Amino acid sequence: MIRVQAEDFDCSAEIRALTTGRDDIGAVVSFTGLVRRGEGEAAIRAMTLEHYPGMTEKELERIEAEAMARWPLSASTIIHRHGRLAPGDNIVLVITASRHRQAAFEAAGFLMDYLKTNALFWKKEEPLEGEGNWVNAKSADDAATLRWRDDEAPAK
Q1: What are phi and psi of 142, to 5 degrees?
Q2: Phi and psi of 126, rounded to 5°?
Q3: C-beta of residue 132 within 8 angstroms of C-beta of residue 126
Q4: Verdict on whether the full-model pTM lies above 0.85
Q5: How far is Cα 89 from Cα 111, in angstroms, rounded to an integer?
Q6: Angle 55-70/101-117 helices, nearest 10 degrees?
Q7: CA pair distance 9, 127, nearest whole angstrom
Q8: Which H or E element spans position 110?
Q9: What pLDDT score does 113 carry?
Q10: How far apart are CA 66 and CA 147, in angstroms?
């Protein structure tokens, strides 16, 4: 399931919605990303996330389908917020469910690395003083995605 929304989400409720009535799930991995205040000159008062409606959801569906093809997942959820968010606010939720933990962990890592580098979202940070700046991609995030670029998908 994919959702791009301005509204906050409840992590526990989303996990319950994904797992209720399912007896084929043995492991659930969740990752919640929060707005970080930062320190010193990097401290922010808010972050604004923009996306390309329709296209963003299609791209998230594509990457979710890739995760489902690479690992034996029973289900997954990706929720990404947009709009103006303050430090401490939820930004993103990724939940992966599988019969076994390894597939759930790996798929969650894959999805988050993708969201950090290739998803169609743009971030503008508002410093404590002055005008905001659009955030550039980080080379460390790009490097993290390289581990998923091999042509061999894990065995199901």
Answers
A1: -60, -40
A2: -105, 110
A3: yes
A4: yes
A5: 20
A6: 150
A7: 25
A8: helix 101-117
A9: 92
A10: 15
Sign of the four-CA dihedral 81, 87, 90, 96: positive
Q: Helix, strand, or coil here: 10?
A: coil
End-to-end C-alpha distance for the chain, whole angstroms: 21
Would you state the structure tokens that stand for residue 122, as one six-digit string? 């743009």
Backbone angles phi, psi at 66, to 5 degrees: -65, -40
The residues pairing with 49 across neighbouring beta strands, listed in sequence order, are: 83, 123
Contacts of 71 (CB under 8 A, 6+ apart): 96, 98, 103, 104, 106, 107, 110, 154, 156
| CA-closest candidate to residue 47, choices 149, 114, 144, 132 | 132
Contact 49, 85 (CB under 8 A): yes
Q: Give the count of alpha carbons within 13 A of 61, CB side only.
A: 7
Q: What is the pLDDT of residues 59-102, one digit of tens each?
A: 999 999 999 999 999 999 999 999 999 999 999 999 999 999 99
The ranges of the chain with pLDDT < 50 are 151-153, 155
